[in-house]
Write a structure and sequence with these properties.
This protein is α/β, with parallel strands linked by helices. The protein contains twelve helices and six strands.
Amino acid sequence: MKQSIFIADDHPILIKGLTELLIEKKMNIIGVASDGRSALNFIYKRKPEIAILDVEMPYLTGIEIANECKKNNISTKIILITLHKEIDLYLKAKKLNIYGYLLKEFALEEIELCINSVKNNIPYFSKKVKEYIGFTDEDDRILKDFSLTERRILKLISQYKTNKEIGHLLFISHRTVEKYRSKIIIKLNLDPQTNTLVKWVQQNKHLFTISIIIGY
């Protein structure tokens, strides 16, 4: 049986283009919506297997809908399409276990490949997105290797905070901060010399700004 697909976007031309393309590819489109509130209500009621959502829509964004689905354990696999190329949206999508992430300008070109990947439970994050935001698979792996506390410490190191200052801000002792730093150095396979970690953090500063704020 064909998987059910729902599409929500506030641009009629894109909805028409996606719908016609997917119907032509013999896919099962069960509904469309032009705003976030209608989209969420449809997902609650019909629970489509795949939902293609615009990131920016009236009333609720695609990110907000994905967050609601996650909180309510709705199994719909979400594919986000967006005009925006900022790293924070990309990382939010990763945090919410989004199954697909495409730029609008390439949506018609990539959507079939994305859906086929999602059908096989393989997330599809467009390489074109990573190229635009300068985010690599290695960056992704690094973030996943660190605990939330380690990422907070790395963010504070990027701001040149001392162990004592970091301990004060995180309500832990400076000795505990030292232990965390040692663990981080081992994870990164760095030479445990003075300032080696600071230099590494400055070179990778983009990983420890947005990602900490959203709790990646």
